[in-house]
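Section 5.1 Outputs to date
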Amino acid sequence: MQTAPLTPDRWDDFVDLFTRKGPRGGSGPVECWCMWWRRRSGSGEANRAAMEELVRAGEEPGLLAYDGGRAVGWISVAPREHYGHLSRSRRYAPPDPHPGVWSIACFQVDPRHRRRGVARALVDAAVAHALARGAAAVEAFPHRGRPDYMGAATMFAAAGFRPVREAGPRTIVRYDAATAPLA
C-alpha cells in the first residue's frame, strides 16, 4: 500500500473514493467532503467545492492510501489552525497553545478494504507527513466507545499516541515528536 498527499493531480482519486458505493450498495456519497471541522456549509456540493478550492490552491489537506493504483483510504491531517471549528470547539479546543500541533480529523476507508490495515497505514503516513513539514506533535480525537470517522483509540495507541485528556465521548491523544518512541 502506498500513500500520497492529496494534490490537484490526485483530485479525481479523492472524488472517486468519496462517491464510490460500497458492497451491496454501500453508503454512497459522503456529504461532508471532510470539511466538517474546517469550514462547514449546508450542502454536500458546497463542501466538495470548498475542498477542491483548498486542493487547487496548493494545500495538502490530507493523504490518500492506494492499493493497486486505486485510492482505498483517506486521512485528513493538517495544522490544527486549519480546522477552525475544531480549534474553536468548547469540547475539543486545546487547553494549551502548544505550537506546531497538527490534527487528524477524519478517515474514509473503502468498505471493501476495512480491517486490512489501511487506517493504521494512513496514521503512520500522516505522522511522517506532519513531522516532515515541521510539526512538533500530531493530535487525534478517537471515540472511547466504538471507532468512528475519527479513528480507534487502540490504533492511535499502537502508533505511539498518548492520551492528553478526555473530551466528552472522545479522548484527545497526541503523538509528541520529542518523546515518541522511535519506530
